[in-house]
Structures are given as C-alpha cells and as structure tokens.
Amino acid sequence: HETIEITHGFTPCFEIGFYQYTTRNEGMAPAYVGNHIRPRISLPEKYKWPVGLSISTEFGYQEAKYAPDQWTLEIRPIIDKTISKLFIAINPVLDYSFKGSDHNQGLVFSPNAKISYAFTKVVHAGVEYYNSMGPFSSFAPLNRQPHQLAIAFDFDFSPEWELNIGYVRGLTAAVEQEIFKVIIGRRIGGKKK
C-alpha cells in the first residue's frame, strides 16, 4: 500500500493535510483506494501548557472493495510530552462511519500511543501501539480487538528530511500479523519545529 500525504501549515498552529491512498492489485497493477483531508489545530506554545495538545480531524472516502466503510471521520486528540530525551504521545481516537458496514455502530474508540527515546540527535527508537476497541455502546472482546505493537525508528537526517521505519506485529488474530512500514518525509519551505 502506498500513501502520498501533502501537508501545508497555514499558521504555526493550523495545518491541512491531503492523503491519496493507492495499492497494488494482483499482477502489481496500481489501483486507486481513496482520499482523505485532515485539518489539524494545536495549542500555541506561548500558553506554556505542561503537555502538547492538538486535535486532528480526518474525513475521507475509500473504495468499497478495499474498505468496509466508504465515508469516514476520525477525530484524533494528540497529547504529547517530551521529558529530556523521552517522548510520549497518546491519541484517544474516535472513528465514525457515515457509509458502510460500520455505520450503525456509532463512535468507535481507537486508542494509539507512542514512546520513544532519542539515542542521538538523529536516531530515536521506541514502541508504538494501535488498537480499535469497538463502539462505545459495547467494546469488542479483547481477542477480537486488533491490537498491534510496533518497534519503530525515527531518523531526523536534516531539517528537510525525516524517516520512520517500523516492524508492526499483530497481537491478536483480528489483525494482520506482520507489517513493515516506511514513512519518508520532505519539508519544503518554513523551518523545522
């Protein structure tokens, strides 16, 4: 699966991202999967809160042959904190389906988290956790939730380039058991934060 994301920061506290999802079918022919748009607003640093706080909302479409839900909304609060060389982030995500098999479920709780350590200015390593517990009306049994744990490495080679590589392991039978992920980022204009 390949995803292209273009994000533009309009102010230090507001950005909009656009995603183009593709995949390769049997025979390796490229195929369109869908698009999402993601505005994100963050609390200005001048308020000096003890944690970083932002909220990202992602709305988009996926082709029915690739996803059970065609029109979806994700509301992702992002709470993070850097303590010396340790970085901690928690995302208590809410998902909603406007059209598709999960439409009648209501809001779905999908918590994510990350802990990483800066071994050098360039290399950070840590653990990422992903899950979808199910709708608030009735969480799925633990063995049917798609728990995933990743060992991930972040590389900040320069102010312009970043790289995230991870090995993701499914912890239950409800999810793919092995995924290798690569995220390559290129900053254009502005200053790295």
Question: Your description of this structure?
Answer:
This protein is an all-beta fold and 193 residues long. The protein has strands at 2-11, 14-24, 30-42, 52-62, 69-83, 86-100, 108-118, 123-130, 134-135, 148-155, 161-170, 178-186. Helices cover 0% and strands 64% of the residues. Strands 1, 2, 3, 4, 5, 6, 7, 8, 9, 10, 11 and 12 form a twelve-stranded antiparallel β-sheet that branches. A hairpin with a 5-residue loop joins β2 (14-24) and β3 (30-42). The chain starts with a strand and ends in a 7-residue tail after the last strand. The model has no long low-confidence stretch (mean pLDDT 94).
Q: How helical, in percent, are the residues? A: under 10%
The low-confidence parts are none
> Given the C-alpha coordinates, what overall shape results?
globular
What is the average per-residue confidence, as pLDDT, rounded to a whole number? 94
Rg for CA atoms: 18 Å
Main beta sheet: 12 strands, antiparallel
Strand content: over 45%
Number of strands: 12
The span between the termini is: 29 Å
Count the helices. How many? 0
Order of helices and strands: EEEEEEEEEEEE
Structural class estimated from helices and strands: mainly beta
Q: What keyword list fits this structure?
A:
about 190 residues; mainly beta; 12-stranded antiparallel beta sheet; about 0% helix; about 65% strand; globular
What is the fold's blueprint, element by element?
Layout: E1 2-11, E2 14-24, E3 30-42, E4 52-62, E5 69-83, E6 86-100, E7 108-118, E8 123-130, E9 134-135, E10 148-155, E11 161-170, E12 178-186
Antiparallel strand pairs: 1-2, 2-3, 3-4, 4-5, 5-6, 6-7, 7-8, 7-9, 8-10, 10-11, 11-12
